[in-house]
């Protein structure tokens, strides 16, 4: 408390002025941005740039540690850093206006840079940033001027022991508001106390305005979400080729194993998009070009009119650690990419298709994979519904057998037929592999890690996958003992995962349950531990449980 009271009022006020002005800046930008596109909101653009420029190790750490909450963590961290910077800007501006202004404007150069470097940005995208910066500067000026003049030199005099006459003359900042009315009620109330009042009134007013503008901008942006509306109105056509009916018994016999078909709402989501791209299907175009005999453009209506195919395909993320949950199985409806390529007729020498999304993400998919007859789709439907916005509405790629980062481009708008030696994709530029076939994996879902279970018969179960090859066998081992075959649930084709169960006669104590899968082509999955970086994790999943006596 003592140290707090000894912070002179002008400094507290200056920091507050910076903080409030930063809020004004962002709120004004948000409001202006809501008139344009979501990508133009400076906060989002800043976050997106943050993501693009974060070192790979930190990004991996964030995904591994916070999973799907990684974006929330990013926003909170960004907020904290910005709050500190804003306070410093206020202090600077109080000392010398020009320096503070110059320090605020980087939220100038940085934000426009962030906005402009987003793929698909135009000059109009600068309007929100410029508007926000002007509002922020005005607010800063207004507030800094209301800080009592006499104390200006003091704030500049850094040392804690420096005298602070003007501030000390009135009550200390920690003394509470109760002291203020009495002191300022007299007719001669033109001293520091009145200045304080006037400062706080202005700061309060500006802060309130920022809240209103920010909230208003957010609501407005919401109203402009035509994508959500278009999705609601969309009726999917029937598939010309339906998915094979799922056989009975695809679900593991063990209770607690994930559903065989992942509901859309539970499907893992991984992408670099802070604001979910809002694409209007009416305006959507897919440009097909590059090393092809025929370049052309597809509209959404072209897809609706085409012969569509339905297929169960299990997606997996390359960042999924052994035993992790970044995998999901859905019934996709879409237009075969093979047809797209047949029309385009790739030229000799082409060996890759670079797919790019509306927000600049890109993936490099081997050309032959898209032509070998597997159900590689331009998907528009997921489990009988139009794609959810966060899963790529209106169109995404789904390619069985490849990790999402090299194949599953959401909000896809561009396909370039090219060569691996000529072009690289988003994650390849960040140290990940240029190719990404999915590795055979098995994960034990029940019992959960560190569960306590009663002795006796314990149901063990999980899910295994080896897209394109198919799961052949799963085995379980207790405490390094002999490997036992698990019971496989029914399979639904080589591109979907396969569940399993095993009844364990559990004796009291602490035990390690290890599982491993065989696929139909390469046999036993490798037990060699590997991190997700650069081309997917490997190793046998082990779960430690306690059996109670
Ligand atoms: N536009 C875009 N598409 C993308 C990504 C992305 O960051 N942006 N991430 C890819 C990755 S790494 C994965 S694992 C899958 C995840 O798809 P899902 O979010 O629908 O599960 O999307 C892929 N498609
Ligand atoms: Mo991924």
**General form:** globular
What is the count of distinct domains?
3
What value does the Rg take, in angstroms? 29 Å
What proportion of the residues is helical, as a percent range? 25-40%
- Counted by DSSP, the helix tally is 15
How is the biggest beta sheet arranged?
A: 6 strands, mixed
The separation of the N and C termini measures 54 Å
Q: Hetero groups bound?
A: the ligand Nc1nc2c(c(=O)[nH]1)N[C@H]1C(S)=C(S)[C@@H](COP(=O)(O)O)O[C@H]1N2, molybdenum atom
Q: Would you kindly provide a written description of the structure presented here, covering whatever features stand out?
A:
The protein is α+β, with helices and mostly antiparallel strands and 549 residues long. It has 3 domains: 4-155 and 193-224, no CATH class; 264-430, Sulfite Oxidase, Chain A, domain 2, CATH 3.90.420.10; 441-548, Immunoglobulin-like. It contains 15 helices and 20 strands. Helix 2 (9-34) crosses helix 5 (70-95) and helix 3 crosses helix 7 (110-117). The longest helix has 32 residues, at 192-223.
List the helices and strands and how they pair.
Layout: H1 2-5, H2 9-34, H3 42-53, H4 56-66, H5 70-95, H6 97-104, H7 110-117, H8 126-145, H9 152-156, H10 165-169, H11 179-184, H12 192-223, H13 226-233, E1 285-290, E2 296-299, H14 300-305, E3 309-316, E4 327-336, H15 337-344, E5 352-357, E6 362-366, E7 377-382, E8 385-386, E9 396-398, E10 412-418, E11 441-446, E12 452-454, E13 456-465, E14 471-478, E15 484-485, E16 487-488, E17 498-506, E18 509-519, E19 523-524, E20 541-548
Parallel strand pairs: 1-10, 12-20
Antiparallel strand pairs: 1-2, 3-4, 4-7, 5-6, 5-10, 7-8, 7-9, 11-13, 13-17, 14-15, 14-18, 16-17, 18-19, 18-20
The protein binds the ligand Nc1nc2c(c(=O)[nH]1)N[C@H]1C(S)=C(S)[C@@H](COP(=O)(O)O)O[C@H]1N2 and molybdenum atom (MO).
The site of molybdenum atom has 7 residues, from loops.
């Amino acid at each position: 408390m003592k140290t707090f009271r000894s912070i002179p009022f002008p400094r507290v006020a200056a920091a507050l002025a910076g903080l409030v002005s930063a809020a004004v800046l962002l709120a004004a930008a948000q409001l202006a941005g809501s008139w344009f596109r979501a990508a133009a909101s400076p906060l989002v653009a800043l976050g997106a740039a943050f993501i693009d420029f974060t070192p790979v190790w930190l990004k991996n750490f964030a995904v591994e540690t916070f999973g799907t909450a990684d974006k929330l963590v990013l926003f909170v961290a960004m907020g904290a850093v910005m709050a500190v910077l804003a306070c410093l800007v206020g202090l600077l501006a109080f000392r010398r206006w020009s320096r503070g202004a110059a320090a605020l404007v980087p939220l100038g150069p940085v934000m426009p840079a962030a906005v402009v470097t987003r793929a698909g940005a135009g000059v109009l995208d600068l309007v929100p940033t410029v508007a926000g910066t002007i509002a922020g500067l005005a607010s800063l000026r207004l507030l800094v001027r209301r800080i009592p003049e006499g104390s200006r030199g003091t704030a500049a005099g850094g040392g804690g022991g420096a005298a602070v006459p003007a501030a000390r003359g009135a009550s200390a900042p920690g003394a509470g508001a109760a002291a203020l009315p009495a002191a300022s009620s007299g007719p001669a109330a033109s001293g520091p106390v009145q200045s304080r009042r006037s400062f706080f009134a202005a700061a309060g007013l500006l802060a309130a305005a920022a809240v209103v503008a920010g909230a208003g901008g957010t609501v407005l942006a919401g109203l402009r979400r035509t994508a959500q509306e278009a999705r609601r109105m969309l009726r999917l056509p029937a598939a010309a080729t339906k998915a094979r009916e799922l056989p009975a018994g695809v679900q593991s016999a063990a209770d607690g194993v994930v559903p065989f078909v992942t509901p859309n709402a539970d499907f893992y989501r991984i992408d670099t998009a802070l604001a979910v791209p809002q694409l209007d299907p009416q305006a959507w175009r897919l440009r097909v070009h590059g090393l092809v005999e025929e370049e052309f453009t597809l509209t959404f209506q072209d897809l609706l009119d085409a012969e569509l195919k339905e297929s169960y395909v299990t997606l997996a993320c390359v960042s999924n650690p052994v035993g992790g949950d970044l995998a999901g199985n859905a019934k996709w409806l879409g237009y075969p990419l093979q047809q797209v390529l047949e029309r385009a007729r790739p030229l000799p020498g082409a060996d890759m298709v670079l797919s790019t999304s509306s927000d600049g993400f890109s993936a490099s998919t081997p050309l032959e994979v898209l032509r070998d007859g597997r159900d590689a789709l331009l998907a528009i439907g997921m489990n009988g519904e139009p794609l959810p916005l966060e899963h790529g509405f209106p169109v995404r790629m789904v390619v069985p057998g490849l990790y999402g980062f090299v194949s599953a481009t959401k909000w896809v708008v561009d396909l370039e037929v090219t060569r691996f030696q000529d072009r690289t994709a988003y994650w390849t530029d960040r140290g990940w592999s240029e190719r990404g076939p999915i590795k055979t994996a098995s994960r034990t879902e029940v019992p959960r890690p560190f569960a306590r279970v009663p002795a006796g018969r314990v149901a063990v179960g999980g899910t295994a996958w080896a897209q394109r090859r198919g799961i052949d066998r799963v085995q379980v081992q207790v405490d390094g003992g002999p490997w036992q075959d698990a019971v496989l649930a029914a399979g639904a084709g080589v591109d979907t995962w396969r569940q399993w169960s095993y009844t364990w006669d559990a004796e009291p104590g602490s035990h390690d349950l290890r599982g491993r899968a065989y696929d139909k082509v390469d046999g036993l999955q490798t037990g060699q531990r590997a991190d997700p970086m650069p081309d997917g994790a490997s190793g046998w999943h082990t779960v430690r449980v306690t059996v109670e006596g």
